[in-house]
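Q: I'm a student working through a structural biology exercise. My instructor gave each of us a protein and asked us to get a predicted structure, then write a short paragraph describing it. Mine is Iron(III) transport system ATP-binding protein. I'm not confident about reading structure output yet, so if you can add a plain explanation after the C-alpha cells, that would really help. Here is the sequence I was given:
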Amino acid sequence: MADLVLENLTIKYGEVTAVENLNIHVASGEFLTLLGPSGCGKSTSLFAVAGLNHATSGIIRVGDKVLFDGHPRNTVPPERRNIGLVFQSYALWPHKTVADNLAFPLILRKMGKSQRDERIREALGLVEMLPYADRFPFELSGGQQQRVALARALVYRPPLLLLDEPLSNLDAKLRERARVWLRELQERLNVTTIYVTHDQAEALAVSDRIAVMSMGRMRQLGSPRDIYERPADSFVADFIGSSNFLDGRMIESGTDQARVRLADGTELVTPPGRAGADGALVVAIRPERIEVVRELGPNGLRASVMQKVYLGSVWQYVVRSGEMEFRIQTTWEIDDPTVTLRFPPEHCAVFAEKFAGA
Ligand code: ADP
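A: Happy to help. First, here is the predicted structure for Iron(III) transport system ATP-binding protein. I'll explain a few features afterward.
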C-alpha cells in the first residue's frame, strides 16, 4: 500500500479554475473522502490522480512514484499509474461476462492465463460474486454490478483505490448496507482509498478523514467528528448537518472564550471566535445541541414555540426570542407554548459571517 500526496494541486479548464491549491496527504491504508456540493471540484481532483484529466500545476505522488510534477509533459499516463477506479456508472463492458470484465486489466498487464484465473477468483470472492463469473452485466442487479466494478478495480491489487460516487445509483436501503460492506472490505485489504461523494451522511459514516470542498477549494480537513463538532467556517457548519446561524455582536474576545450578545439581547459565553470589522458576528449551533431546561440559567433564554414538526424519531420546533427565530430538536414532545433553553458553550461556534451560498 502507498500514501498519496497532493501538493498545491491546481486544475484549470481555460478560464475556469476547477480546483485551486489543494494540499492533502492521504496516509497509507487511510479512507479519505472528498465531500462537497455538485461542481466543487471533487471529480476533477480524483480524475487528475487517475490521470484522466490534466492538472495545471502542483504535485501528485503515490508512494515514491511522482505521477505529476507540475510540468504537463512529465505526466504519467493513466495506464501506467496502476490505480483502481470505480465510476458512478460502473462502466462495465456489456458484451463481456463478469470474468472477462475482470480479465481485461490483467491481459493489459500481460498476465498469463492461470495467474489471471486465480486473481479473478480472488477478486470475485472478495466482493462475494464468485457464483456470477459467467453472467453478463445485464443479468445482474445494480448492487451486483457495483460489486463487479469494485472487483475489477481491485483485481490487479492497486496500492490506491479511487471511488467516484460508487453507491449513488443504489436505492437508500441498499446504499446504507453497501457502505458498511465497502468500508469493511477496504479495512480488510488496507488499501489507500479516496472516495468522492456529495452525501454528508455517507461521508461521516465511512471515512477516516473528510476533506470538505467548496468552489474548488478545501475548506476543512479532519475526522468526521472534527468536521461535525468543530466546523472551521460557516460553510462547513451549514453543509454538514444543519446549523442555526444567530446574529450577534462581540462584547469581549479572549483567548479561552468570548462573550457575545445575540440580537434578542441574550449574553452568551462561547469558544473564542472572530467577529467582522464592525463587531458583528454569527453564532452557529446545531438544533439538537440546544438544551431544553427547567430553570433559566447562564447561556440561557426563554423562547416561544412557533411551529412544531413530528419527524418520527424526533420533534423539531421553530422558536422565537425577540426578533430571533431558530430551530431546536427534542426526542420527546413539548406541549408548552414557551420553552427555557440553554446554549452549551462547547457547542457554539462564532464566525465573522454567515454562510452565503456554495
Ligand atoms: P464535482 O465532482 O464536485 O461535482 P467537478 O469536478 O465535476 O465537480 O467540476 C468542478 C468545476 O469544473 C465545475 O465548475 C465544472 O463545471 C468544471 N468542469 C468540470 N469538467 C470540465 C470540463 N471538461 N471543461 C470545463 N469545465 C469543467
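A: Here are two points you could use in your paragraph. Residues 13, 16, 18, 36, 38-44 surround adenosine-5'-diphosphate (CB under 6 Å). The helical segments are 42-50, 98-108, 113-126, 142-154, 172-189, 200-206, 224-229, 234-239. It's a good idea to check both against the output above yourself.
Q: Great, thank you!
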